[in-house]
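Handout, page 2. Input:
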Amino acid sequence: MVHRIALNFEDGVTRFIEARPDELVADAAYRAGLNIPLDCRDGACGTCKCHCESGDYSLGSYIDDALTEDEAAERQVLTCQMKVKSDCVLRIPASSTICKVKAGSMSAEIESVQQLSASSIGFSLALKDPGGMRYLPGQYVNVSVPGTMQTRSYSFSSMPRDGVVQFLVRNIPGGLMSSYLAERAKAGDVVTIAGPIGSFYLRDVARPVLFLAGGTGLAPFLAMLEELERGGANQPVHMVYGVTNDADLVELDKLEAFAAKIPSFTFTTVVAAADSTHPRKGYVTHHLPETALNGGNVDVYLCGPPPMVDAVRAHLHEKGVVPTSFHYEKFSPSEAHK
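Output:
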């Protein structure tokens, strides 16, 4: 049996390796050609120290100068002394460039394009090499725009199914990718995707979770919910999904299906426009239930435009709530994210 290990470097590039239960993670990485930081190989220097964000493992011998008891209790590990007992995610405190690791790249074909609303487009890609593109739920890839030398960055809105991946993107009038998808895209068109990239991904669910999605910032959460449906969630998971106009609320059927299949998952929708007919008007910060904040014992995940991210951070500060963890990803049209 082998276990899958995701190595997430500090610049967001992720690479996957496989390790046998009797194999040191450092050896598995080097076998895969990944140059993770390593000096002594015997647990004495601490050079290979990183953080295990999920999964089970055992550690061999090492000295306290390399890894203290407190660090070990916080799931810091030494890859030269670590053997995995399950799939794991490791956060490597070094850039992929220094470690001479490049993001993967592959060709894919447009399978379908769907105009979900005036402001949102969904599209799916059939991967040429399905086994060659692994990613953590919440990460993104750079997608080439056919007929140009440019790329746009989009979060996966699904986990891979039969070699097909999905995306939810904002329809920007006159936008390079938006215009292609809305006007010219057809099944069989070839694009290149490069990644996966990003430190915005689902960690182990050890306490209540709050998802905050703004517009097409919903995309990474759909992938996260697929992962929760597959693996189960013993903690409450609540989502507040905010948009500008009524028509911008998309993929509600998927959210309802997740709520039916994941007993601990609930969601609320919010519309900002003053002329909205939606029962909940305003911004996401107006509809954060106290129970979901759980007095700060909560993991918050936020994906939306910069003003939304700043507003949520200010709101939590005003309420004196400091979440156990706060993971966020900002995007805006000028950045071509999402």
